[in-house]
Specification:
Number of strands: 12
Oligomer: single chain
Strand content: 15-25%
Distance between the termini: 70 Å
Largest sheet: 6 strands, parallel
Helix content: 40-55%
Order of helices and strands: HHHHEHEHEHEEHEHEHEHEEHEE
Strand order of the largest sheet: 2-1-3-4-5-11
Length: 338
């Protein structure tokens, strides 16, 4: 294997200084258009690539950002990761993905991210331990939480407006004629689930619609099977005691509930029971479900996260900040038009 092409090789080929090569490949650095063109042409001819690891050692500043996720069981995880990767790339930042799905992996993720001298860390929704965020902040690594609450110094919190989303779901179901309402939450009791439930209950109380009842159940599983489990709990009752409007904490739970309602209990969706989910996963628009759901603006979430991190990287002493990104209701065929 031939030796790596160095910046000095490019400088000699382009007839410029070594520092001119460095400035050409440094975002925001000053270099004349003529010099930049010569350097880029020489780099192309030689096949030069910037050694970012070496640069981070020299400059004592990394462009790596740790992305910590609690496993990949949730279909929402790839959606937010895709948006984060794009937003980071727009600022010359490179994601380093770590899985904290178990306590042992969480400890390993922490150690590895610190070994790589990451410039910042992002903890996504789910259940990565919040102590992870506290430890990063203690070591002066800027941290952003997505759909999590912590209240730690040096940690910014960016989330969808989950309470507002719960209110949208409640108002949609009541407007469509549902009066026996249920909220189906996942068993993990995440911040997100609690917030959506709180918004759901508050909107129902504020509406003051006569004859409305409400209950909350927790599924036995966080995914599709949890929806099936919820359907058994809700629909194995006499018809007059069954809910006619159900808000599910995620689309995946809603899919399981809708399938079980139809196939196990012979119910018609939306004539017998109306259903609202959360996340607007690609399958939600498929004809088999045509699910009414809440759409999180993952692009806006990702952009806000990256902007917050960049600000904190420049000013580490900034007070913790909280941002809420609006969600929208996407009405399809699991609710009635009224």
């Amino acid at each position: 294997m031939s030796d790596w092409v160095t910046a000095a090789d490019v400088a000699r080929r382009a007839g410029v200084s070594r520092s001119a090569v460095s400035r050409t490949f440094t975002r925001g650095a000053s270099v004349s258009p003529q010099t930049r063109a010569r350097v880029l042409e020489a780099a192309k001819e030689l096949g030069y690539r910037v050694n970012m690891l070496a640069r981070s050692v020299i400059q004592q500043q990394s462009n790596l950002v740790g992305l910590v996720v609690p496993g990949f069981a949730s279909p929402f995880t790839p959606l937010i990761l895709d948006a984060l990767v794009q937003a980071l790339g727009e600022h010359g930042l490179v994601p380093l993905l770590m899985d904290s799905g178990s306590s042992s992996r969480m400890e390993e993720s922490l150690r590895q991210l610190l070994n790589y001298r990451v410039a910042a860390a992002i903890l996504t929704s789910g259940t990565p331990p919040l102590e992870l965020a506290r430890e990063y902040a203690r070591l002066q690594v800027p941290v952003a939480l997505i759909n999590r609450q912590a209240g730690f110094e040096g940690v910014d919190e960016i989330s969808s407006d989950n309470e507002g989303g719960g209110a949208l779901a409640a108002r949609c179901l009541m407007r469509c004629g549902a009066r026996r309402l249920a909220y189906v939450n996942r068993p993990t009791r995440t911040d997100v689930g609690r917030q959506r439930g709180a918004g759901f209950y508050q909107a129902i109380g504020e509406a003051g619609v006569a004859g409305v009842t409400i209950e909350t159940i927790e599924t036995g599983d966080a995914g599709y099977r949890g929806g099936e489990d919820a359907a058994r709990q809700l629909f194995s009752r006499p018809a007059e005691q069954r809910p006619d409007g159900v808000f599910c904490a995620t689309d995946l739970v809603a899919f399981g509930l809708v399938d079980a309602a139809r196939e196990v209990f012979g119910l018609r969706v939306p004539l017998d029971v109306q259903v609202v989910g959360v996340d607007d996963l690609p399958m939600a628009a498929a004809g088999a479900y045509a699910l009414t759901t809440l759409r999180q603006d993952v692009s806006a979430l990702a952009r806000e996260v990256v902007q917050r991190l960049i600000g904190r990287m420049a000013e580490p002493a900034l007070a913790p900040r909280t941002s809420r990104i609006p969600v929208s209701l996407v009405e399809r065929h699991t609710t009635l038009s009224r």
